[in-house]
Amino acid sequence: MSDLYLNAAVGGALTGLVYGLMALGLSVIFGVVRVVNFAHGEMMTGAMYGAILLAQAFKLDPLVAMAPIAIGMFLLGYGLQRGLVNSFVQRPEHTQFMLMVAVAIILTNSQLIAFGPNARNVQVDYALDSYQFGALIIDKVRIFAAIAALAVSGALFAFFRFTLTGRAIRACADNYLGAQVVGLNVKHLYGLTFGIGAACLGAAGCLLLLLLDVTPLQGPSYTLLAFIIVIVGGMGSLTGALLSGLLVGVSEALAGVAFDPSAKSMFTFALLILVLLFRPQGLLGRRP
Amino acid sequence: MSELLEVRDLDLYYGDAQALSGVSLTVREKDVAVIVGSNGAGKSSLIRTVAGIERPRAGSIRFKGVEIAGLPSHQVCELGIGQVAEGRQVFPTMSVEENLQMGGLLKRARARMKAGLREAYDMFPRLEERKRQAAGTLSGGEQQMLAIARALMGRPELLMFDEPSLGLAPSVVQEMFQIIRRLNQGGITVVLVEQNVAASLKLAREAYVLENGSIVLSGSGAELLADDRVRKAYLGL
User: Do the strands B206-211 and B214-219 form a parallel or antiparallel pair, or are they unpaired?
Assistant: First the structure.
């Protein structure tokens, strides 16, 4: 019995790291551009369909497709920010909300038109392989996905910490007027930020495709999941998003074993409510 | 000496409220131009408009003969106009060194980033001692040094100071004016906006009094210091 829980918890933690990467995208965009990307899950769904197309056309493994999909998503994200979102940055939140929801609805319905309502997935030939460590049995795909998610997150942390462009993006978030004063090209940096957030999503989408099916109507539930993870982890905290993704993954998996897989969201919401009650700034968030 | 900055008939509005009306002024190369005026007279608005942070409704701003009115701030900085903004505007969670690097990212200065850091630390040794420290934890005076050093990283030809003495201890204010004088002697043209009228007019070659968004008086610093209206309104004499 305890083996069952252990296996579920470890598997959930690995899936959770991929959730964390998805939420990182949301956190980065909100932390810098101060626009909440309500089309987050829908954009990721689009990336997942992109990976399916690449798998069909070129037999590309989603782990490999991660690179072109992330680059494609980066370009789309940059374009979306410069072409559409940028003119809404200074407007009230509800206007931004309507814009992003409109983007989400358009994405969902185009995906429905293009790919039909049925669930799709990619079959890799190691899909059913697993590693055994004593009583612990872990799916190969889950390990690969988690390692890749950690690698991408690590690269993102390093980018923000050590590169001049990454620091310039942090500067825009830290002091908008200050960034203008020293002559940073804020619009360009916002575009890069949105692109980077979208690239995280693209990578996360490819990794999730190893673990789950994709349907055109799944977008909103992933948007919601990303919000919960960001709030639990603490707004603007990148490590917080990763940690809380992990927690949500574990809680989903344990809920599935202890109750019923369909009860997993209940536990995620409970986690959110507990955090809002006892630590409203999030696990690693700073008090405003 | 030739004209470096020429502002003509500048109008700025915030919504329906007019902040600047018909402002004209000239700053010659290697001069110190001082703009004095009370709170809300439009001094900061003028600086922000020249810097490209606000867009004027009418008028022209020429820098080295090139029209820059309405250009975005990063392009204005790229031409060689630096700014030490009101309230210092450092990046509080970033280290002192990262703050300085942000000032040196302009294309005109990027290749000389290393040398720029060295010069900044030679000029302000205190910043070197604290280069790993978050800028938000510095004292007000240190933050002002950082804001100046950061602006210098962009290798400006014209440096605009917006209320650099605001909120600083009197001893630091003295130091601030000495730094500005030294920078000017080093060849940088200075535009200085100040409420500390006596100290700044002593530095000024060219001075302007701004009231309700318009220039009401101009002349050399010495002339304005001797002017009855200035002495009454701003020096309390």
Answer: antiparallel
